[in-house]
Design brief:
- By secondary structure, the protein is an alpha+beta fold.
- It has one domain.
- 20% of the residues lie in helices and 45% in strands.
- It contains two helices and eight strands; from the N terminus they run ββββββββαα.
- Strand 3 and strand 4 form a beta hairpin.
- The protein starts with a strand and ends with a helix.
- The structure holds zinc ion.
């Protein structure tokens, strides 16, 4: 799902897409000629790899994230934007699938430990 930056409405518009087992939904609207605000929620499950044994398992991904999309280089110094993820768009198109994929990727690249390795860790701590 792609939308041209200049065609984003000023009234919040709903969106919903689902890739694999993750839903990405919320509203988006233009807040200035160069900025688009996305209030979104992620719901679902993501497959990750255990950093110890390498086996894969799923973890829940339920998070509310606000994005601020800038047409070109983001230059505003508005402090209200600090809790948002800033994305600079350089081809005039907002690609929701790409935003979803990049959030899933960043979650995957975090440090994850599967249940059985987590149990091993507990055992070692008890032995000390
Ligand atoms: Zn493991």
């Amino acid at each position: 799902m792609k939308i041209e930056f200049r065609k984003v409405p000023q009234q919040p518009k709903e969106f919903l897409l689902e890739v694999d087992s993750v839903k990405f939904l919320g509203t988006f609207c233009k807040i200035s000629s160069k900025l688009v605000d996305i209030k979104s929620k992620f719901e679902g499950f993501v497959r990750v790899n255990c950093c110890k044994c390498g086996s894969d398992f799923t973890i829940p991904f339920n998070e509310e994230i606000n994005f601020l999309l800038s047409d070109g280089v983001y230059s505003s110094k508005d402090e209200r934007d600090l809790d948002k993820i800033i994305i600079e768009i350089d081809d005039n198109f907002i690609d929701f699938e790409e935003i979803l994929q990049s959030e899933v990727e960043s979650l995957r690249s975090d440090y994850h430990i599967c249940d059985s390795c987590a149990k091993d860790d507990d055992t070692i701590e008890i032995e000390y």
